Amino acid sequence: MTVRRLHPAWYVAAIAFIALVGAAGFRATPSVMLRPLNEEFGWSLGTISAAVSVNLLLYGLTAPFAAALMEKFGMRRVIAGALLLVSAGSGLTVFMQQSWQLILCWGVLVGLGTGSMALGFVAIVANRWFVARRGLITGVLTAGGAAGQLVFLPVLARLTDSQGWRVAALTVAAAALIVVPLVWWRLRDRPADLGVTAYGAGPDDVASLPVVAPGSAARNALRALKDAAKTRPFWLLAGGFAICGATTNGLVGTHFIPAAHDHGMTETTAASLLALVGLFDIAGTIASGWLTDRVDSRWLLGGYYALRGLSLLVLPSLFAATAHPSMVIFILFYGLDWVATVPPTVALCREYFGASGAVVFGWVFASHQFGAAIAATAAGLVRDQLGNYDAAWYGAGALALAASLLSLMLLMGKRRKDIGPAGPGIGLAFPPSHGQEAATGMTDLHR
Description:
Structural class: mainly alpha
CATH topology: Growth Hormone, Chain: A
Helix content: over 70%
Strand content: under 5%
CATH architecture: Up-down Bundle
Shape: globular
Order of helices and strands: HHHHHHHHHHHHHHHH
Oligomer: single chain
Number of strands: 0
CATH superfamily: MFS general substrate transporter like domains
Distance between the termini: 17 Å
Largest sheet: none
């Protein structure tokens, strides 16, 4: 009998997924800590939200440089270091007494650490290790953030209620630290390091395509931005993704729990609803990855943003003291659409920018976090000034509809002709391998 071994790409993807789950833990924490920090220190929601904004902004700005650093120093070193930063930033918050310390620990350290494990990391793993199933893998890894939210948020909410926010912060620090040995053990930079080719690669496929040219990581990241910024698709993608960040991490991810609490809902119940967003997000993102391999990504983005905008416009009327069926339906729908935008956006960056696609996506993702940072602070100020969040929800809904139009405007552009065949999917710089279309079922895992 011949024993077939699982392709190493699946081990790399599994460890990447676990690392992303670990990084997501602290990103889920702000929404359960807003009220406890406000009550203990007397800091306004605007002040606390400013620290969240620094976290979100650095999370995005770090991504393109982290992608270039992974090219220079390797994924394993960068991801292990990033997890240590997350653990340190989360753990040190228990000693803070002033708001600037919150910004330093929660904003700077955790922002830099989680930014190094942002969606640019997802793009690099998918592009280096997979030729077949690239869209699906992008969806699965992107769902890692949702899984982290799903795992941590209800636990953190209960810990905060019963033991205090410091125990919750230390729990996140320990979780991030535990992942470091796994990353060092199994994560590898390229298929060639193990003497194999990328999963699904045929004889005509490039087994390990460099994302950027050799040289300074910062120089390569800035060069990719300079070149991409000269193109119309970059600004359309970046504009839409900025709105994506504003309407997810910045607004719903940060302010849903205090907004629900304003209407009499307990924070534990609101945290459980937000965790359900993470649960449905896993299904939605994986499904979006599957669709990205089959449907034009421009149409997918247009549909995702339009549906998100319409759902946000009805959200203010759904808040109540209990989780009634209409709110549960919103949570289900919004969860399916939460980061379903990521696989088609990664695909379009690869399509328009070729070998620099992962680094360019890092810059597009930076715009995502820039939008999230603005929304996090703005929503906190709206609540402080008006006493409720209604204006924030309506404004976000209108912005999401505008993002739909930006995405559909990409249909008027032309594809690059020098990066492979036209068609949906990620990694169009690779010609399709002969066995790619035929690979199906469980036997596909062993190729």
